[in-house]
Design a protein that fits this description.
By secondary structure, this protein is of the alpha/beta class. It contains ten helices and nine strands. It has two domains: about 100 residues, no CATH class; about 200 residues, Vaccinia Virus protein VP39 (Rossmann fold), CATH 3.40.50.150. A seven-stranded mixed β-sheet has the order 3-2-1-6-7-9-8, sandwiched between helices. The protein has a two-stranded antiparallel ribbon with strand order 4-5. Helix 3 runs antiparallel to helix 4. It starts with 5 loop residues before the first helix and ends with a strand. The protein binds S-adenosylmethionine. S-adenosylmethionine binds next to helix 6 and helix 7.
């Protein structure tokens, strides 16, 4: 049991002693009767006790407040790190050591805590280093892929940037490789943009084939068309505006009523003339337009592919595109699939 702080007991003790002394003098000189002196002493003692109690309450409440603030602060930092219970326990232990004035144990605990914090920071630093290294490797791979693309298409003007909203250089390398190997007559791309220009240059380079790029957004259709024209590719690349319409189109009222089965996809009128597709690149419509935005490309366009066709589905790192590809294979067992670990994930489908 520790002695209470001297600041707490010295003032009331001194006041009590002073009161007793004054009363003793007054009684001895006959100024006050001893009975009255005892009564005054009791009153004095009571006043002192009340004052002391108020002092203790104020002090305890201040300490509780301080402890609350520290716990709140500690809880916040511990919550972000996990291990709240462990941290609270170690803090409690340190508070006990402070209370018991156990300096050696406090010192040992502080060293342990410091070592743990260093370990945590090291873990964070290692994770950050791994992330930066990985990102650097990915960037380098895309730079190499873009360099190979440039070497092949040998463009005579500035090329539109890839990655981000546009396809990445690695998937374009796969497409250009198919163009070089297979010399497709008809290439169809779902989703126009930078890739339409790169693919157009590749077709120009091999000297045969044409590209039809479907685009659901009128503004982007115009932008892509301008880009294609600026690259002198309008004779090879057609950017075709194909607004999204409910799919499959309702054949009767009963089917029209079942909206759950329907989702938007490119206007079928816009693809009516597309048969014998040799290379199909499915990179649209964008994911936000429907849960399985690209699924209809399978039932609509796979039957329109030539026997030697190659189909590339981009963004298969996403669950929706994985499910799309699974469904295509289930619906069309005549196709087989190869998975390529490109930046955004690519599935390549060919006939068995
Ligand atoms: C996944 S992106 C890919 C488009 C294209 N295959 C490419 O790689 O460049 C699909 C959609 O992006 C939109 N888009 C086209 N040009 C764009 C641009 N300059 N900026 C932002 N989005 C664009 C179009 O609506 C397009 O259908």
């Amino acid at each position: 049991m520790r002695m209470p702080s001297p600041r707490l007991w010295i003032p009331p003790a001194a006041a009590g002693a002073a009161g007793v002394a004054v009363l003793a003098v007054l009684t001895a000189t006959g100024a006050v009767e001893w009975v009255a002196a005892v009564q005054l002493l009791v009153l004095w003692g009571l006043a002192l006790a009340v004052g002391l109690l108020l002092l203790v309450v104020r002090r305890v409440s201040r300490n509780v407040d301080r402890l609350g603030r520290r716990l709140e602060h500690y809880h916040k930092s511990a919550a972000s790190e996990g291990g709240i219970a462990q941290r609270l326990e170690s803090m409690n232990r340190m508070l006990r050591l402070v209370r018991d004035n156990d300096v050696p144990s406090l010192h040992a605990d502080a060293r342990k805590l410091g070592a743990r914090l260093v370990e945590e920071q090291r873990g964070r630093f290692d994770r950050l280093t791994a992330h930066v290294t990985d990102q650097g490797r990915r960037d380098y791979q895309q730079q190499v892929a873009e360099r190979e693309l440039r070497d092949f298409v040998d463009p005579d003007r500035f090329m539109p940037a890839l990655r981000g909203w546009a396809a990445s250089p690695d998937v374009l390398c796969l497409l250009v490789e198919k163009i070089r190997e297979r010399r497709p007559g008809l290439v169809v791309e779902c989703g126009s943009g930078a890739s339409s220009v790169w693919l157009g240059h590749a077709l120009r380079r091999v000297g045969e084939g044409r590209l039809v790029a479907l685009e659901h957004d009128e503004r982007y259709a115009e932008l892509s068309r301008d880009l294609v024209a600026a690259h002198g590719l309008a004779d090879l690349v057609e950017v075709r505006y194909a607004p999204l319409r409910p799919w499959p189109p309702a054949r009767d009222d009963a089917q029209a009523a079942d909206e759950r089965e329907r989702q938007p996809w490119y206007d079928l009128d816009a693809i009516a003339d597309l048969t014998g597709i040799d290379l199909l690149f499915v990179d649209g419509p964008p994911g936000g337009t429907a849960p399985l935005a690209r699924y209809p490309a399978g039932p609509v366009l796979l039957p329109r592919c030539s026997p030697r066709a190659v189909v590339l589905l981009d963004d298969t790192i996403r669950k929706a595109e994985q499910e799309t590809s699974d469904r295509w294979l289930a619906d069309h067992p005549e196709f087989e699939r190869v998975t390529v670990a490109t930046e955004k994930g690519t599935h390549i489908l060919t006939r068995k």
